Amino acid sequence: MRYFAYGANLSHAHMALWCPGATPLVKAVLPDHRLVFRLWADIAPSPGKEVRGALYEVSLADMDALDQSEDCPDLARSKTIVVRTAQGNRDAFAYQMNPGRLFAPPAPDYLALILEGYEDWRLDPAALPIPDGPTATP
Q1: CA–CA separation, 44 vs 58, rounded Å?
Q2: pTM recorded for the entire structure
Q3: DSSP β-bridge partners for residue 37
């Protein structure tokens, strides 16, 4: 199964802690969504926007570990998505936080993991929309 990472799991080292058997595949873009922070990275539907990330190939055991790391289903839920890659569109799954969470900037150590992942995948860190403080969910 393909997993679309867009937060801390972009970091190869961090992903290996949860899913040592996961295989990094390719950079990917999730269309019609935007990256937001609710202390943790999250995706929100947003026509015309896109979220940069990457695909990993994961096993069923990896999926269980990811469910634990994402506090699924209490904090987030898994959803099926279609991402764009240089090789064409690919089906994958990603995690999206449950409704009702406030927007809030990430902790510095969490942001450092995301930036490490951006470096691992050679993604542009300017694409990270980091808010200054908490705001209500639109």
Answers
A1: 23
A2: 0.91
A3: 41
What amino acid occupies position 60? Answer: L
pLDDT for 75-130, tens place per residue? 999 999 999 999 999 999 999 999 887 788 888 999 999 999 999 999 999 888 87
Amino acid occupying residue 120: D
- Rounded CA gap, 129 and 90, in Å? 25
Task: Report long-range pairs for 122-131 (Cβ below 8 Å, ≥24 apart).
Answer: 122/27, 123/10, 123/27, 123/52, 123/53, 123/54, 124/52, 127/35, 127/52, 128/35, 129/34, 129/35, 129/36, 129/37, 130/37, 130/105, 130/106, 131/37, 131/103, 131/104, 131/105
CATH number of the domain located at residue range(s) 2-119 in this protein: 3.10.490.10
As given in the structure block, the two tokens for residue 40 are: 């943790």
Q: What does the domain layout of the chain look like in residue ranges?
A: 2-119
Maximum separation of any 2 CA atoms in the chain, in Å: 38
